[in-house]
Structures are given as C-alpha cells and as structure tokens.
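Example 3.2
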Amino acid sequence: MVADELRLAGDDNPGGGADLTITSDGRVGHRTVYSNVNFNITNAGYTYALSIERSDGTNLFQVIDDGRLYAYFIRNIGDYRNMQWNQSTGEVGWDTSSRRYKENIAPLEDDFLKILYLEPKTYTRLGGEPDRWEIGYIAEEVHDLGLTRLVEYDLEGRPDGVNYEKMVLYLNEVIKRQQDRIAELEKRIEQLENSRRQPQ
C-alpha cells in the first residue's frame, strides 16, 4: 500500500481487493486504479455502472453496463454546436467548418440529383414504444442509390445511419441547378414575348 492511500473493501468484493481506493496523489478508483486515470469505475456486473440522482431519488444521469447513457433532464439551450460521436474511437466533440481545421479542400463532385429518388418512410423502433412513429430515410436505401457520403456505417461496414445535416449540401446543388433552369426558361419566354410584340 502506498503511504497515505485509503482503501475500502466490501464483503462482496471477489478476491478481497479494494472496492474504493483513493491514492496519495488524488486518483480515485472503484475496483481498479490506473496510473493515468484520475477517476475510474470498474463495473462489477451490475446493470448500472454509474448513477447520479437527486436527494429524493430522482435519476439525473446513468451509465448502463453496455455503454448506453441516460441523461434525464436536458434543458433547451438554443441553437449551439451539434455534438458528434466517433464510433471507432469513442471520442465526443463537434464538427468544425473553418479552413483552419481543414486541408486538401476541393469541390465536391457527385450525382446530386440522386437525392431526389429517396423516399421518406414512417416506422417504429425495434424494442421501442410501439405507438411512437418516426419519419426518416432508410440507410440501406441511401447506400443503394450510391449516396455513400450521406451514410454512416457501423464498425462492420454496414449502413447504420443517415447524415441528415450533410443532405443540405446535395439539396443546395439541386436547387441551384433548378434555379439555373428557371432563369433559362424565363429568358426564353421573354424572348418569345418580345418577338410577338414586334410589328410584322
């Protein structure tokens, strides 16, 4: 035991190790202490790895053993940055748009009109509330259209989600083409009307 280290053990701890350890340099570990981690919780087979609640027992935040997170009271803070999650690394952050964070910048080339072939669906979630109907696209259908830049894939490479935010890029290009076409047709109409006004 390191000097000034506090170790607490419970009767149900297999192997007789410490349930809670506070080291002399301030690191805290439940079951396990790591040299490069200030606070660690090692779940011992319980449903909840971490639970934070009010004094009246109301749940505020929970981490489930399989990695799911539950935050029960999230207030509306307005239109701020959207959170992003890297499934491969587990890192959570936000998406930046400044040139300061980018390199190899080039125009996006794709068949933007493919997005017009997408068909919105309504559905319920497996294991969810049977009466809660949602709307959206199906990731596999977006993938099958070749719009792979708009698809989020799982670690096995299977279509897993749709990046609705990036769809704006495709829709904007479609609108620009339609506007060019409208301008062209308006010019032709104007030319036809002018020719009809001219005396024969």
